[in-house]
Amino acid sequence: MNRRAFTLIEVMVATVITSLVAGTVVGVVEAFRAATSLQDYRAEAIVRGAGVQSHLGLLALKTRMTLELTPQRVLLWLPSETLTTSGTGSDTEFDRINLLDDELHWLEFVQEEDGSWTLVEWTVKPEAVSAGESITYFTADGAFWEALFETLQGADALRRSPLASRISPARTSGVAASAPRFVWQTSNTCENRSVGAEFSFIAEDATNELHSDLRVESALAFFDRHSICSEG
Amino acid sequence: MAALRPGMTLIESLVAMALVVIAAAVMASAVHDGLAAQEDALTMSLAGTAAESRVAEYLAKPYAAITALDVVEPVGEMTAPDGAAFADSYEKFGRRTEVAASTLTVPDFPGLAIPGWLIKVTVSDEWNGSERKITSLQRFRPQTLEDLAAAGGAP
User: Fold this and answer.
1) Hey, are the CB atoms on B85 and A173 less than 8 Å from each other?
2) Which of A210, B29, B72, B103 places its Cα 20 to 30 Å from the Cα of A176?
């Protein structure tokens, strides 16, 4: 049976309608792709931000004192001994720092080769420190702890644990700071009772660079001033 | 020879295309709702850090330096403890800080009363021209023996 063929007009109308529908669908698919990309970015910012906040909070909960405070590096002292020997003012185990007992945690913003920054936690590798070098007498001198970091890093005695990568300096009034930074209550380590960080998560797609600034701060719940702070 | 099957009519094609468009619209609507929910989650997450920042400031302050107050930082004017403005992602927030003397009692220990400060921080934004509370944090800062000694009291 022969069916009547489409007329030119019918074909043209169908072509136009098909083109319109195809254009709409392509637009929807592109919007869908952009939206899912934004969703991924936001979800990542939420999860990564919560991760940094909870880890910093956990460290602050265990920290007795901050020992070194610079914009790109802080040192937290987490005694491994119980509080029962505290407050004697004598040279007790609690008042000394044992490098073999995971008592020192450096947090550092490290700039990578591509220009982005990584928040890194450095801890001492027990296997890289001999027992004879494990006990360090306390000092409130930040330069001492800075030198110790350089020495341990030079000897490959520090373990690097990235906490957040692909971060950048936070922006204020549209102007980015020169680097992500740590924040604290006072630079006097004998008085400082809080630690925090300010930075921005970045994500890029074909057309946009997305930023989510973050400021996290925690008080040192069990701040305990070393007796050396009361001397001379 | 097999009989020729009739093709789709123009009407059938148009109906099929209309169904595709409707499906795409439904999908777009679902994605839009998901994005809005995620925007809310990110907002709540940031608001939480703004509140936590203020609470940390008061937990870290010397006890004797704390005084009762009720202060509102308008939207876009929050400042960090060092006096610097918050970063741009926090521009949409305002914050209220209430600090009041309080006493903590423990039901299992009658007669035990711990003096301290009750710190309450509420973070809000503007939504359709009015204030919308996003999150609220409350912490108690007890007066420790060290605080008491520093104030000249008997430890």
Assistant:
1) yes
2) B72
Does this model's pTM top 0.95? My answer is no
Contacts with A218 from chain B: Cβ below 8 Å: 52, 56
Contact with chain A for residue B21, Cβ under 8 A = yes
Contact assessment for residue A185 and residue A177, using Cβ atoms and an 8 Å cutoff: no
- A43 shares contact with chain B (CB less than 8 Å): yes
The sheet with strand B113-127 has its strands ordered as B69-73, B94-105, B113-127, B130-142
C-alpha A213: how far from its chain's center?
12
CB A189 within 8 A of CB A68: yes
Residues of A in contact with B84 (CB under 8 A): 172
> Rounded CA gap, B122 and A191, in Å?
28
How high is the ipTM of this complex?
0.80
Q: In this complex, which of A53, A196, A215 lies closest to B86 when CB atoms are compared?
A: A215
Nearest to B49 among A36, A214, A221 (CB): A214
Judging by beta carbons within 10 Å of its beta carbon (0-12, 13-18, 19+), is residue A84 exposed, middle or buried? exposed
HSE of A6, CA atoms in CB hemisphere, 13 A: 14
Nearest to B116 by CA among B95, B82, B96, B144: B144
- Those of residues 84-103 in A touching chain B at CB distance below 8 A are none
**A49: which chain B residues are within 8 Å (Cβ-Cβ)?**
45-46, 49
The alpha-carbon gap from B21 to the nearest alpha carbon of chain A, in Å, equals: 7
Per-residue tens of pLDDT for chain A, all 232 residues: 566 788 888 889 889 988 988 898 888 788 888 888 888 888 888 889 999 999 999 999 999 999 999 999 999 999 887 665 555 545 577 788 888 889 999 999 999 998 999 999 999 998 888 877 777 778 888 889 999 999 999 999 999 999 999 899 999 988 989 999 999 999 999 999 999 999 998 877 656 777 889 999 999 988 888 888 876 5
Tell me the angle at which helices A8-62 and B10-60 cross, rounded to the nearest 10 degrees.
20
Tell me, yes or no, if A218 comes closer than 8 A to chain B by beta carbon: yes
Length of chain A: 232
Paired tokens of B104: 């903590």
